[in-house]
Amino acid sequence: MSNLSILSGKTYFIRTFGCQMNLHDSERVSGLLDSCGCLVASSPADADIVIFMTCCVREAADTRLYGQCSSCKSLPASPSGKRVIAVGGCIAQRDGEGLLTNLDNVDVIFGTHSIAHVAELLADAFADGDHHVRVEEIDTGAATDMPWHRETAYHAWVPIMTGCNNFCSYCIVPYVRGREKSRPMDEIVDEVTGLVRQGVRSITLLGQNVNSYGRDHDHDPRFAELLRRVGDTGIERIYFTSSHPKDLLPETIDAMAEVPAVMPQLHLAVQSGSSRILKLMNRKYTREQYLDLVQRVRDRIPNIALTTDIIVGFPGETEEDFEQTVSLVDEAKFAQAFTFIYSKREGTPAAKIVDPTPRAVIQERFDRLVKHVEQTAFDFNQGSLDTTVPMLIEGTSKKDPNVLQGKSPWNQTVHCPVPAGVDPVTLIGKVIDVHVDTARTWYLAGASVGDAR
């Protein structure tokens, strides 16, 4: 068994790429290292342990990892005189020991199902100076029992399930995160209840497809029931991601409308506005079905902020297919959309499709789409002009320390001046009402009304 005491006093730095699930995994790794007596470092140069938590959804992630690991070779000596480099997350799960072929300075590799063993792997690397790799194929669920180190006291990521059963033709996630596995509902509710006692005000429920929560246990999705039970814990704000359109049931929409703590924001990835491309993507819904779902959501929650993901340049996408995506964006009126150029991932069905479309054409389409997204985002924010929104304060603006920054219930970024004579640090995690007099594409701004609470 590893001698974990060797880690006591060691400094560590974690750099995270990718989705919210990776961010939460990093919090778990950080919590585990804290429990071993490790200390957080402000930069890789100050760290005895450097960990890269990786994402492999897009090709750029691999390039970034190789660059980051290579840059560690030129770092000054670590505080203890020995530095251990570790790679975790989805790229580690996908490539395993094969990463050592290109990353000769990496000491530890751990997959998405092995984060509970990070401390022992690191301790072994310090003890014997050898490479240590652990990539398990089955998720034991042990990571959810690990301690965690949250970046903020007012918000928490709460995983409700891992894995994905959808196998979209472009997506590597099911191959690196495994099949869907839901946490017991009572365990989740108990965790949120404990977070409320600790002063957490906002949570985000996490899963590759939260709408299918519970299906692996009871054959029928139980996400609507989970929302209602979590809403009864006293938590003030509930967000969740990600939602697959094919599994968003009427009872879930009802729960969103009826549970006060569920915020009026829904991320509903469409990926394309062309039914032909959606079929090639194996998304299991059509353009018409998606727009019908959007209308049903808005009928129950008229003021909802709808956000989405869109891929441009999927193999075989024509100008007509792309125009259908643009028109869907205009019709759905997204509050925000995350747009991506298709990235080929070896091992997925879409990687086998030959596409002669020039990169310049795809880039031009992407740029056109961004303009439409910016317009719908701007239009949505205009609805907040001359209204008062409650802002959960996250801190101050990076551009101006005299301006508070936070989030509205619709997950909009909000700015307002720091109240006179108040230390902004004391306001972090509190809520203050802001009367909005400026609405831009990506933020709202105004003056605070009343005291923070």
Automatic annotation (TrEMBL):
Cofactor dependency: [4Fe-4S] cluster
PANTHER family with a match to the protein in the record: CDK5 REGULATORY SUBUNIT-ASSOCIATED PROTEIN 1, MITOCHONDRIAL TRNA METHYLTHIOTRANSFERASE CDK5RAP1
Protein name per its UniProtKB record: tRNA-2-methylthio-N(6)-dimethylallyladenosine synthase
Keywords, alphabetical: 4Fe-4S, Cytoplasm, Iron, Iron-sulfur, Metal-binding, S-adenosyl-L-methionine, Transferase, tRNA processing
Gene3D superfamilies in alphabetical order: Methylthiotransferase, N-terminal domain, tm_1862 like domain
Catalytic activity: N(6)-dimethylallyladenosine(37) in tRNA + (sulfur carrier)-SH + AH2 + 2 S-adenosyl-L-methionine = 2-methylsulfanyl-N(6)-dimethylallyladenosine(37) in tRNA + (sulfur carrier)-H + 5'-deoxyadenosine + L-methionine + A + S-adenosyl-L-homocysteine + 2 H(+)
CC terms in the record's Gene Ontology section: cytosol
Subunit structure: Monomer.
HAMAP family, A to Z: tRNA_metthiotr_MiaB
Gene: miaB
Organism whose genome encodes this protein: Collinsella intestinalis
GO function terms (MF aspect): 4 iron, 4 sulfur cluster binding; metal ion binding; tRNA-2-methylthio-N(6)-dimethylallyladenosine(37) synthase activity
EC top class named in words: transferase
